[in-house]
């Protein structure tokens, strides 16, 4: 027995490490997005996100003051100023774009007859015996070390976006009925396909599998036309019906296969006891199928939550009808170049689905509920 | 004294917020605007009180706000109510909505091809015939614009189906003036000079061009702009038009020459930042960043007037970066061709107010309100160009007004399968190492299979 | 608030409506054909023939309108020309066979079908088994599940941060190239590196679908009766033996379901290809090709629908396999 225990603990270690490895591998890409959502656009496109934790070398330029900024110091004309921002430190500087790091801090050089000195703390001083006449300042190129910097500006931009609260409500209004209704309808159908005998059962099951593959795009035009013709038009009723229809095949398929696996004896004995099919369904099948119902609920919720296509087609996209994905898309702008907003909105829209996942997780375990019928 | 000051400041603040919600420029105040045209329009369309219609377009975010700043003037003048909705999947949505029988009243098409397709199916309402003549008379290169919006209707008869409002210029080369000064380069006046400059920069051990074709699902389109611009500089405008309708085959030597000309720039490892391999892989949004690096990753970047959106934050156009007209060959006598784009407004329902809105767009004031802000160019010759929000816009506007030939982005005129498909892919393959002949043949063979 | 009431009342009406239908129709059936009295036997038999259709009714109605009708519509459109104004017979299908992009898509779809379901199911099974045995299992599960919750646009950005290319020697912002460069290799343009770019796209889908497989398989694994495992432990079976010889065979049915579902997702794969390459550099797949023809520029419904029909026909083997399975279950 001792040997078993030793073996067991080393196995536990192996399992823990393997799980950790898998989780890390799966999380790295998302972690990149999370880190990026706290950076600004220029940072995202210049350095890798994994380097955002360490201080970064950055080259940029600063303009000196122009003629109007000069002060007279004895018989010298002087321009002075700061080259580095708060927390940055200067590592090199230059006066030509081609060689931005030509000089070390503390050195001096000649610029058009003036002497330019840059000190180690990032102050520059340009002295000349003749008055400066340029209308725009000279460029001084600096290579600076900046400490890691993060911003929550992206989040405040997204969360304060116009109409986001309304959109949240709209999304909820779309999502909840579009999750609950298909589950109900599918559960009954799945029970019939799993436990009732009738001609055409196999064919019908196969047809459901076949319908899983129907590309949504072919359904949009005929269905919207149908909605317009029968007077539903664009609106919540239309989108609920559409999501129900599109979600049913997966729901029926998952639930049927789960229900088939339920213990036959339980159902047979209930039938012998004179229970009606409806009672069997409600008292035995439904409670036993909770894990499958919960997992499908999660998937349907996710799908509806993240959907933009069905929403724009069946709900319309006026201000009052916009869903979350629609508002986020608007924030990203016409050309979709705002990656920082993309990253941020991805994390904001993921919050609710994850909450649902956590809430549903305890229902995913069949053992808990199945225990009650083990004796039967 | 102090008290009075505070009071008047509060007053200004009050009136400012009241005006902001409605009209961004107070009518009658700024003399540069053509307010008379607004009054005139209002007087002619007084019977629209209380009518409403909606507009569906591709503009989102900033562009949407700008367009929505123009609408209140129409509402003020007519009393009608307008609602604009933007969609990032506009192309798809307009097709679905109109096919399903619930079209918007007005649609804003970014591509003539899509509008022509819907016109052929009878989804668009024809515009009055006088409007065609109006475009010819009042737009610079008016014939080009009028042809752009004249399509065959469901019965095959040619009619005006859209009105062009808002243009952009694609024939621009962006550069950093101070980098040019440092290196002693000069802005080229001819395409020959531009090529010499390219070679010179490369000889100096630097990289002349930043070219990026990446655009996610639309990867390749920046190359089509290059080829179109060069097409207009090698061949006649008539050849260009024939090319967009495939009367001039895609694998015609004239087209292949233009593709090869693009290859001269893009397929030379010494001429492009990151080497030829990175041309197709670099995102067009990130491509101009090379101009602003130290040392510069490149000195030149050819891209349309919208690209400043993707410059680093705080970049001042005219100071930190500037542009010049993508020049024409001096040896070839083709004038000053300009490649551009624009958006086209169509009416899809029998809404009276919607039709009036199209007429509103013809007034100088409808153009000037947006001109005075940002991101708007117009070929309308009747507007006051002093209104342009900044000097840069004015200079771009001048390129448009001085154009001897204006041609619309050819890939938008070709059938979708070519202009938004085979042409893109073909250019990616071309940059990837295929010969111009092979790429052109591939595109032509796709075109041959179209019904 | 008004909206909230609307949503709540919809749920209530929807749920009550469904319950009323199922309960009410069953009740009516039982009163017409009571399962007792002199004709009990005959009544039960006859009611048994009707009842399945009461249970299936609403589902069949929905499937019929929202899926079957559009499919029939597509079949019709696929026999028409681009603007659906003229009957062209099989022309669109004839064109498909000769089109090089279609051939490329078929080959790529086939590759996707081989790789993605297998890897997703495998990783999902491993993840389910591992996370069920550790304390922080639920937390680990949530992290592996997270990709499923991210919209495809988000996924596009995430993987851009992995595959992004910068020229050799430059600061890499793509993780993969940063690693390659740190190890002394040359950075690659992964998404245009034929034919491997297909596999880089597949990895994205595996990354997303593993969460799905894990959730379903984990529920199945936990459903295995304790007694069978305890018996095996007493017999001295090693953990590997328990897993492969006891657990896996017991959940074979669920594995098949997961495999099938992912296979169908793969057939429909569109978003990933659309966002990352749009089918360029030899990565075209059927669903994206269909989208191109249906909605890009000037739409061609004929060809778009023909591709959709091909897509739907490809699922036939899975349907046949399912019919056989159901027959077997019945016996």
Automatic annotation (TrEMBL), chain A:
Q: Which Pfam families match?
A: BPD_transp_1
Q: Which organism is it from?
A: Paracoccus isoporae
Q: Which GO terms describe its biological process?
A: transmembrane transport
Query: What domain of life does the UniProt record list for this protein's source?
Result: Bacteria
User: In its UniProt entry, what is this protein called?
Assistant: Alpha-glucoside transport system permease protein
Entry similarity comment: Belongs to the binding-protein-dependent transport system permease family.
**UniProt keyword terms in alphabetical order:** Cell membrane, Membrane, Transmembrane, Transmembrane helix, Transport
Q: Which InterPro entries does this chain map to?
A: MetI-like, MetI-like_sf
Q: Which membrane topology term applies here?
A: Multi-pass membrane protein
- Looking at the UniProt entry, the stretches that span the membrane are 12-35, 174-196, 202-224, 236-255, 339-360
Q: Where in the cell is it found?
A: Cell membrane
Q: Name one GO cellular component term.
A: plasma membrane
Domain ABC transmembrane type-1 residues, every copy = 168-360
Automatic annotation (TrEMBL), chain B:
Q: Which residues form a coiled coil?
A: none
Q: Enumerate the UniProt keywords alphabetically.
A: Signal, Transport
* InterPro entries in the record: Bact_solute-bd_prot1, SBP
The answer to whether UniProt assigns keyword Signal to this entry is yes
Q: Pfam families from the xrefs?
A: SBP_bac_1
| Keyword Transport listed | yes
Subcellular location, in the record's words? Periplasm
One GO cellular component this record assigns the protein to is: periplasmic space
| Signal peptide residues on this chain, from the entry's feature table | 1-21
Domain of life according to the entry: Bacteria
Q: Which PANTHER family match?
A: ARABINOSE-BINDING PROTEIN-RELATED (PTHR43649), OSMOPROTECTIVE COMPOUNDS-BINDING PROTEIN GGTB (PTHR43649:SF29)
Q: Which family does it belong to?
A: Belongs to the bacterial solute-binding protein 1 family.
Query: What's the name of the protein?
Result: Alpha-glucoside transport system substrate-binding protein
UniProtKB/TrEMBL annotation, chain C:
ABC transmembrane type-1 domain location:
106-322
Instruction: Provide one Gene Ontology biological process annotation.
Output: transmembrane transport
Pfam family, any one = BPD_transp_1
Protein name listed in UniProt? Alpha-glucoside transport system permease protein
Please list the coiled coil stretches.
none
What GO cellular component entries does it have? plasma membrane
Family indicated by similarity: Belongs to the binding-protein-dependent transport system permease family.
- What InterPro entries does the database record attribute to this sequence? ABC_transporter_permease, MetI-like, MetI-like_sf
Q: How does the record say this protein sits in the membrane?
A: Multi-pass membrane protein
**Where does the protein end up?**
Cell membrane
Q: Which UniProt keywords apply?
A: Cell membrane, Membrane, Transmembrane, Transmembrane helix, Transport
Where does the protein principally reside?
A: membrane
Q: Which PANTHER family match?
A: ABC TRANSPORTER PERMEASE PROTEIN (PTHR30193), OSMOPROTECTIVE COMPOUNDS UPTAKE PERMEASE PROTEIN GGTC (PTHR30193:SF18)
């Amino acid at each position: 027995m001792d040997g078993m225990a030793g073996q067991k603990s080393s196995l536990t270690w192996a399992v823990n490490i393997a799980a950790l490895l898998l989780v890390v591998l799966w999380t790295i890409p998302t972690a990149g997005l999370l880190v990026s959502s706290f950076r600004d656009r220029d940072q995202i496109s210049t350095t890798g996100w994994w380097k955002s934790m360490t201080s970064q070398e950055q080259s940029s330029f600063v303009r000196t003051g122009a003629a109007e900024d000069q002060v007279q110091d004895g018989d010298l004309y002087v321009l002075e100023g700061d080259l580095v921002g708060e927390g940055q430190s200067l590592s090199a500087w230059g006066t030509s774009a081609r060689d931005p790091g030509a000089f070390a801090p503390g050195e001096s050089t000649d610029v058009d007859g003036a002497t330019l000195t840059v000190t180690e703390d990032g102050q520059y001083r340009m002295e000349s015996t003749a008055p400066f006449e340029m209308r725009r300042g000279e460029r001084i190129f600096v290579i600076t070390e900046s400490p890691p910097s993060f911003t929550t500006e992206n989040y405040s931009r997204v969360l304060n976006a116009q109409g986001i609260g309304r959109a949240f409500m709209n999304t909820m209004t779309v999502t909840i009925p579009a999750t609950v209704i298909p589950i109900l309808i599918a559960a009954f159908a799945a029970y019939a396909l799993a436990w009732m005998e009738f001609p055409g059962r196999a064919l019908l099951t196969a047809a459901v599998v076949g319908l899983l593959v129907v590309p949504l795009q072919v359904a949009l035009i005929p269905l919207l036309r149908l909605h317009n013709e029968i007077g539903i038009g664009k609106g919540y009723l239309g989108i609920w019906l559409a999501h129900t229809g599109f979600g049913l095949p997966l729901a029926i398929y998952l639930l049927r296969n789960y229900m088939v696996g339920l213990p036959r004896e339980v159902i047979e004995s209930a039938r012998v006891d004179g229970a009606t099919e409806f009672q069997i369904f409600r008292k035995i099948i439904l409670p036993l199928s909770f894990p499958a119902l919960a997992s499908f609920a999660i998937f349907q919720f996710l799908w509806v939550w993240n959907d933009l296509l069905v929403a724009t087609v069946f709900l319309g996209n006026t201000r009052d009808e916009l869903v979350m994905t629609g508002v986020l898309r608007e924030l990203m702008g016409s050309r979709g170049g705002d990656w920082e907003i993309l990253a941020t909105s991805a994390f904001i829209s993921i919050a609710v689905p994850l909450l649902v996942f956590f809430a549903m997780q305890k229902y995913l375990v069949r053992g808990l509920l199945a225990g009650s019928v083990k004796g039967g | 004294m102090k008290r009075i000051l505070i009071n008047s400041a509060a007053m200004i603040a009050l009136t400012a917020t009241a005006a902001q919600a409605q009209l961004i420029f107070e009518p009658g105040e700024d003399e540069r605007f053509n307010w008379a045209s607004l009054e005139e329009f209002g007087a002619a369309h007084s019977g629209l009180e209380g009518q409403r219609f909606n507009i569906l377009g591709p503009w989102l975010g900033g562009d949407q706000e700008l367009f929505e700043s123009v609408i209140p003037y129409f509402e003020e003048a007519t009393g009608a109510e307008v609602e604009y909705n933007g969609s990032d999947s506009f192309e798809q949505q307009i097709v679905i909505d109109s096919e399903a029988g619930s079209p918007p009243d007005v649609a804003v098409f970014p591509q003539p091809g899509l509008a022509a397709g819907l016109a052929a199916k009878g989804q668009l309402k024809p515009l009055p015939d006088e409007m065609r003549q109006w475009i010819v008379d009042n737009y610079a290169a008016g014939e080009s614009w009028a042809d752009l919006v004249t399509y065959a209707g469901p019965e095959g008869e040619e009619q005006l189906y859209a009105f062009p409002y808002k243009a952009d210029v694609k024939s621009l080369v962006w550069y950093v003036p101070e980098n040019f000064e440092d290196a002693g380069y000069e802005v080229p006046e001819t395409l020959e000079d531009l090529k010499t400059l390219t070679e010179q920069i490369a000889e100096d051990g630097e990289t002349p061009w930043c070219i990026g074709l990446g655009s996610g699902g639309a990867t390749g389109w920046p190359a089509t702009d290059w080829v179109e611009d060069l097409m207009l500089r090698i061949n006649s405008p008539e050849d260009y038009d024939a090319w967009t309708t495939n009367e001039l085959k895609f694998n015609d030597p004239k087209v292949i020459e233009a593709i090869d000309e693009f290859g001269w720039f893009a397929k030379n490892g010494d001429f492009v930042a990151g080497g030829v391999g990175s041309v197709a892989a670099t995102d067009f949004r990130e491509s101009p960043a090379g101009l602003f690096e130290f040392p510069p990753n490149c000195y030149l970047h050819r891209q349309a007037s919208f690209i400043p959106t993707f410059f680093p934050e705080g970049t001042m156009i005219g100071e930190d970066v500037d542009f010049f007209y993508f020049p024409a060959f001096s040896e070839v006598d083709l004038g000053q061709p300009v490649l551009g784009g624009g958006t086209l407004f169509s009416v899809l329902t029998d809404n009276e107010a919607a039709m009036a809105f199209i007429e509103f767009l013809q007034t100088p004031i409808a153009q000037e309100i947006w001109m005075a802000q940002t991101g708007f160019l117009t070929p309308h010759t009747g507007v006051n160009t002093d209104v342009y929000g900044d000097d840069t816009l004015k200079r771009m506007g001048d390129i448009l007004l001085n154009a001897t030939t204006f041609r619309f982005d050819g890939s938008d005129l070709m059938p979708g399968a070519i202009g938004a498909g085979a042409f893109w892919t073909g250019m990616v393959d071309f940059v990837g190492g295929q010969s111009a002949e092979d790429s052109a043949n591939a595109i032509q063979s796709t075109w041959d299979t179209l019904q | 608030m008004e909206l909230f009431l609307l949503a709540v009342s919809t749920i209530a009406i929807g749920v009550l409506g469904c319950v009323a239908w199922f309960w009410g129709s069953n009740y009516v059936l039982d009163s017409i054909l009571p399962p007792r009295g002199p004709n009990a036997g005959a009544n039960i038999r006859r009611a048994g023939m009707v009842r399945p259709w009461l249970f299936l009714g609403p589902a069949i109605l929905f499937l019929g309108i929202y899926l079957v009708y559009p499919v029939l519509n597509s079949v019709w459109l696929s026999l028409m020309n681009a603007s659906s104004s003229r009957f062209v017979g099989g022309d669109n299908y004839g064109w498909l066979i000769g089109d090089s992009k279609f051939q490329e898509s078929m080959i790529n779809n086939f590759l996707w079908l081989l790789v993605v379901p297998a890897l997703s199911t495998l990783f999902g099974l491993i993840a389910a088994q591992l996370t069920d045995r550790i304390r922080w299992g639920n937390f680990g599960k949530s992290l592996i599940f997270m990709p499923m919750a991210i919209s495809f646009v988000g996924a596009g950005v995430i993987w851009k941060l992995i595959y992004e290319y910068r020229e050799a020697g430059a600061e890499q912002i793509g993780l993969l190239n940063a690693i390659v460069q740190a190890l002394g290799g040359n950075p690659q343009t992964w998404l245009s590196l034929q034919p491997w770019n297909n596999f880089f796209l597949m990895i994205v889908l595996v990354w997303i679908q593993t969460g799905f497989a894990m959730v379903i398989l984990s529920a199945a694994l936990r459903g295995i009766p304790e007694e069978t495992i305890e018996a095996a432990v007493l017999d001295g079976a090693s953990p590997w033996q328990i897993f492969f010889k006891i657990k896996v065979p017991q959940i074979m049915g669920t594995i098949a379901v997961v495999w099938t579902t992912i296979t169908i997702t793969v057939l429909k794969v569109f978003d990933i290809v659309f966002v990352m390459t749009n089918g360029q550099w030899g990565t075209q797949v059927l669903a994206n090709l269909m989208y191109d023809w249906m909605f890009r520029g000037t739409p061609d419904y004929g060809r778009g629908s023909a591709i959709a029909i091909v897509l739907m026909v490809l699922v036939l083997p899975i349907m046949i396999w399912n019919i056989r399975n159901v027959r077997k279950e019945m016996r």
